[in-house]
Specification:
By secondary structure, the protein is of the alpha+beta class. The protein contains seven helices and eight strands. A four-stranded antiparallel beta sheet has the order 3-4-7-8. A two-stranded antiparallel sheet has the order 1-2. It has a two-stranded antiparallel ribbon with strand order 5-6. The two termini are 25 Å apart.
């Protein structure tokens, strides 16, 4: 039996405090250790989150964070061999990073928004964070329009905002069905990763004048997660 990767999601709202959410993904079975494939995907999602954190600052449009996550996923998949690259066998420029991003195929693996706003005793208010009339979105979207379909915050960040940063990567049969014949995918390599199921890592951050403050105190590094699941701490 293959070990299962399971996501644990917790939400809490205490009176007169910020509503909070935290998600951690942990291996079940295998002595509390990730399989090589699960570890690779977990660390890719960590990288998606880390690069998102580095970019956070007032004035940056939240769409840019969504794009960073998709770009990082594409690069990671190319390194793992799930997505082809120009140097792959019988490949070419049609499998460049830019071409794969423009195809929107990464939405089959990262279908949701990277995060949303949080408030006093409320999860988020889409009518405010994703207004129907939005003058902050102009021109051609970064990457592919499918990246933003389920993004619930589509505004520039402001000092004092509280948002979640929760990238993920999933291998859902339903989501993968439309891309089973994609020329961008090495389908033999993909099969090795499908048993991972999915990974999501979610922290809550406060946007500050200089960048951000992470309000989440639960660790997410691979070593700590495995020690917890193995009963070592």
């Amino acid at each position: 039996m293959l070990p299962i990767v399971r996501s644990l999601h917790a939400s809490q709202s205490t009176r007169r405090l910020i509503f909070s959410q935290v998600t951690r993904t942990m291996p079940v079975g295998n002595g509390g250790k990730f399989t090589p494939e699960a570890r690779a995907i977990y660390e890719l999602v960590l990288e998606m989150q880390r690069l998102s954190f580095e970019a956070l600052k007032p004035g940056l449009h939240w769409d840019a964070i969504q794009y960073i996550c998709h770009r990082t996923l594409v690069r990671g998949f190319q390194k793992l061999g799930i997505f082809k690259s120009p140097s792959s066998t019988n490949s070419g420029s049609w499998n460049s990073e830019e071409a794969i991003i423009a195809s929107g195929i990464s939405s089959a693996f990262f279908p949701h928004g990277v995060g949303h706003s949080l408030g006093m005793d409320v999860h988020d208010v889409p009518s405010a964070s994703k207004p129907l009339k939005n003058d902050t979105i102009t021109g051609t979207p970064l990457g592919h329009e499918s990246f933003y379909t389920y993004l619930r915050l589509r505004l520039p960040l402001e000092e004092g905002m509280v948002v979640t940063v929760e990238p993920g990567c999933y291998f859902s049969p339903h989501l993968l069905a439309p891309v089973r014949d994609s020329k961008h995918i090495n389908h033999d390599v993909l099969k090795r990763y499908e048993s991972v199921g999915g990974v999501r890592i979610e922290d809550v951050v406060l946007i500050t004048k200089e960048g951000y403050e992470n309000l989440t105190t639960v660790r997410s590094d691979t070593e700590w997660i495995e020690k917890v699941c193995a009963g070592e701490i």
